[in-house]
Amino acid sequence: YGILGFEGEKSTAFEPLYPLYLAACRWLARDNFWLIASLQIAVAALGGVYFYKLCFALSQKKLAAQIGVFLYAFYPYLIRQSVAVIEVSLFTTLLILSAYSYCMAKDWKSSVGCGALFGLTLLTRSTALPIWCLAVAALIFKRQFLRGSLLAGSTLVLLLPFLVRNYYVDGSLFPSRSG
User: How far is 131 from 178, CA to CA, in rounded Å?
Assistant: First the structure.
C-alpha cells in the first residue's frame, strides 16, 4: 500500500527499516523471491565477514575468529532465517556491524558512524535498545564523554523521525507489537 502499516492503515506495530529494506529489495529484484532471498543471504554473509573481524579484534587470535565465524555460518536458526522474509539477518548483521564499529571507534568520525549503525540497528529491531544504552554508558564510565555524546547523538538523529511518526500515529514512541 506504500505506507508503513497493515491493509492500508498506518501502524506503529513494527520498526521501519526492514519493511523499507524489503521494499527496496522487491523493487531491485522485480518481486523475484529467489533474488530477494539471495540479497538477504548476501546481507547475512556480510555479517559473517564482520563477525570474523569482531572476534579477531576482541581476541587477537585467528583461531578464535575462525571458530566464531564457523559457528555463525552454521547456526541453524540463522541459516533458516536468512532466506525467510523476516528481519533477523538484517538485524543480526547490523548488530554485528555496530559492535565491530564500537570496538574500533577511536575518533569523532568513527563514533558518529558507530552511532549511525546503532541507529539503523534500532530502526530494524528496538530490542537492541539496552545494548545501545550500555554502550553509551560504558563510554561515559570510561570518561570518554565526547565519543559517548557523539554516539548517542547520531543514533538519536536517526531515531527521531521514527519516534515522532509513532507519536503522531498512536501516541507511542516505540513499536506497539503487543498492542
Answer: 21
Confidence of residue 5 (pLDDT cuts 50, 70, 90): confident
Among candidates 133, 160, 130, which has minimal Cα distance to 16? 160
The predicted model gives 90-103 an average pLDDT of 98
Residue 55 above 80 pLDDT?
yes
Q: Is the pLDDT of residue 157 over 90?
A: yes
pLDDT digits (tens, 9 = 90+) for 25-43: 999 999 999 999 999 999 9
DSSP the chain: --SSEETTEE--SS-SHHHHHHHHHHHHHTT-HHHHHHHHHHHHHHHHHHHHHHHHHHH--HHHHHHHHHHHHT-HHHHHHHTSSSTHHHHHHHHHHHHHHHHH--SHHHHHHHHHHHHHHHHH-GGGHHHHHHHHHHHHHTT-HHHHHHHHHHHHHHHHHHHHHHHHHHS-SS--TT-
DSSP β-bridge partners for residue 10: 5
What b/e readout covers 79-108, taking b as 16+ CB neighbours within 10 angstroms? eebbbeeebbbbbbbbbbbbbbbbeebeee
